[in-house]
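Quick entry between incubations.
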Amino acid sequence: MRRRVLPGFGLSLGFAVTYLGLIVLLPLAALAWKASDVGLAGILKLLASPRTLAALKLSFGGALLAAGLNVVVGLMVTWALVRYRFPGRRILDALIDLPFALPTAVAGIALTAIYAPNGWFGRWLVPLGIQVAYTPLGVLLAMVFVGFPFVVRTLQPVLQSLEREVEDAAETLGATGLQTFLRVVLPTLVPTLLTGFALALARAVGEYGSVIFIAGNIPLRSEIAPLLIVQRLDEFDYATAAALGVVMLTFSLVLLVLVSALQRWTRRWAEQSA
Amino acid sequence: MTAGRPGRPASAMRRLGRASIIVASILFLCLFLVVPLASVFVEAFRQGAHAFVESIDQPEAMAAIRLTLLVAVITVPLNVVFGLAAAWAMTRFQFRGKALLGALIDLPLSVSPVVSGLLYVLMFGAQGWFGPWLATHGVKIIFAVPGLVLATIFITLPFVARELIPLMQAQGSEEEEVARVLGASGLQTFFRVTLPNIRWALLYGVLLCNARAMGEFGAVSVVSGHIRGLTTTMPLEVEMRYNEYNYVGAFAIASLLALLALLTLALKSALEWRYQAAENHR
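Done. Structure below.
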């Protein structure tokens, strides 16, 4: 047993658990306390207004769609970054994390400025009948923006370590590049792509800063669930805010469990093929 | 993929596929990432450098910058100590509930920032758990600086720990055990063996933690109360100016935050490069 060779077990674990308890567990208990005050039936009743349902639908639906788009575009971009060499590749690689590093409020006002009817893109898109700013499409765009790095950064190491021999074998046997990709490469990437999808989804569902500026926040149309929490809190309606918080937190926890299961699956998959 | 791999000359189809993937990727990244970033600076200087300087050189902007720095200066060291403690416990010892501890450390990453802020309001707000007690004792947490700090600590809690745990797991504890057997004290072992081994990962974690602490919006927005000059950090000041149609002012502060993001990305890339070089050296 190594426990006695290295010191500091009690101290480090004690500090870490106390810190987590105060910063994470105690606040979670406060939410549970408020929610149990309201009760499950009460929570459902508080959520049953058309405006709340519309916001939940937009947050969850938009985030699902955004995560799906991120998987497709992220796969293409990661493929280009890992498999090909081209000028500017390293700078673009570093820029992938921009949505992660850029404060969300900054991203929010920048996207709004670009897609507003007089903005750089908006002035071309609006005459074509494509309204992005202040519509659900704007919400989707901001959600794609914040989720993008998660797919690329999840996929990149896996794609880098992928054995090329299998692809070479497939092509020696007469498969075309596309066939090799679809039948040989893509199936091995499925657990990783699902992990990236879930991470992007988790981020997009709860996203607030980059969405609220471009969304325009029109009730029943472009209002997201986190904004409703903020509005209820502004009115000191803690019960409804807590009810919405419970729904969003439950979803996050389910995703967290799903992601860790997916990561175990990816590791097993990698061990089997190794 | 190089064109001249042995036994497989690149066909015209293959070259076309490769070119279109590269062009589409570059185009997407430019339109989707570079243009929004550039627009922040263009909008900030729309009315010239003078207007830019004027909108920063104001008491409330200065107060926002000072508050943002204060929050980061408190948050980052605390989360560094936590990250070191959690990583030491989790990678050097076996105990029950380790997986649960790891999941709890990851939790703030998947919780909506607004929900994070909500948790603290439900705890310390006027009608919260400790609300009445705090009111009778005259302690203000929500709509005050302590609330901003707490919400920021929650949001940035995972960043240092998550960088350290996989690295220290991979490095193992042999070097530390040798140091102990040779008679080094616990602290000597930590400062002479552990810390030098993890310094790049630690710096990386600090970098990410600091960037998020200074840029956090959703969580602090919920607990701030938006009291100008007292509880508005830089991102909140951006929001307030934007909502007052003071676009140059909003983008001026936003451009400072964008500079911080660029600096973070540059340092992060430099660290990754350095770290890879060190790995290849081993």
